[in-house]
Design goal:
Blueprint lengths: L3 E6 L2 H18 L4 E4 L6 H12 L9 E4 L1 E3 L10 H10 L6 E3 L8 H14 L5 E4 L21 E4 L2 H7 L12 E4 L2 H5 L3 E6 L5 H9 L17 E6 L8
Parallel strand pairs: 1-10, 2-3, 2-6, 3-5, 6-9, 9-10
Antiparallel strand pairs: 4-8, 7-8
Helix pairs in contact: 1-2
The structure holds fructose -6-phosphate.
The site of fructose -6-phosphate has 14 residues, from loops.
Length: 243
């Protein structure tokens, strides 16, 4: 798979440093890059490292436009479980990103919001570098396992397994929103470069299946095998079945 570059790092800290260095290198090549960003536990270390590099004067986001992958729906921007809140607390509140975009969890009409978000990505010239985490069930963004690869930005019902996995961030499982807006698989696959991150033994099976399993919408992450430029960074635990 010459289109997929794999880094297996010693631990989560090393994974996060490698990932931040790849983002930094992209911004050095193209200061006005369009970045696709993810939330969840996995990119937190990367964002911490980006903030450190920014404070050290080693990275500049002043020409960067960012698009997040997804957002719960409905959710207010002030809700501390919203992805808007997550991004402020982990990255946007500390660096000088020129323009940030996250699907609007407060939109009146989710269909209109999805169409407008997709249009805005296209109008920006498209995503130069998309950062992805991966769900235990193979979801990327909130593209859950299904029968066909979902196309563009759309409204989804979250999988029971995703609700369970995300319950760790909420007081209890019943508080996890049941719906979200997510970039589609086509939206993600149109990114010029993809950076997939995974940490911990719990991700080892799905990382093996994503990279070497059957390409099927039953495992949405498997579609990445068809992308022309994917970099995967795992720690030794998540990478134990691929090396
Ligand atoms: C988050 C997202 C999700 C997560 C995935 C892994 O914006 O799109 O696909 O990347 O659920 O989450 P963590 O990193 O918490 O294991």
């Amino acid at each position: 798979m010459s289109n997929v570059k794999i880094f297996v790092e010693k631990d989560y800290a090393a994974l996060s440093r490698r990932s931040a260095q790849i983002i930094k290198a992209r911004l050095e090549e193209k200061a006005a890059s369009v970045l696709g960003l993810a939330t969840g536990s996995t990119p937190i270390g990367t964002y911490e490292e980006l903030v450190r590099l920014f404070n050290a004067g080693e990275i500049d986001f002043s020409q960067v436009t960012a698009f997040n992958l997804d957002e719960y729906f409905p959710v207010t921007k002030e809700n501390n479980q919203s992805y808007a809140y997550f991004m402020r607390k982990n990255l946007f509140g500390f660096v000088n990103v020129k323009e940030t975009n996250i699907p609007n969890g407060e939109a009146k009409n989710h269909e209109t919001e999805c169409a407008e978000y997709e249009k805005k990505i296209a109008a920006s010239g498209g995503i130069d570098l998309q950062i992805l985490g991966i769900g235990n069930n193979g979801h990327i963004g909130f593209n859950e396992p299904t029968d066909v690869f979902p196309s563009v930005t759309h409204y989804v019902e979250l999988d029971a397994s995703t609700i369970k996995a995300n319950a760790r961030f909420f007081a209890n499982e019943s508080e996890v929103p049941r719906h979200a807006i997510t970039m589609g698989i086509k939206t993600i696959m149109q990114a010029k470069k993809i950076l997939l991150l995974a940490s911990g033994a719990g991700k080892a099976n799905i990382i093996r299946d994503a990279l070497f399993g059957a390409i099927t919408p039953a495992n949405p992450s498997s579609v990445l095998q068809l992308h022309h430029d994917v970099t995967v960074i795992v720690d030794e635990d998540a990478g134990k079945f691929i090396c």
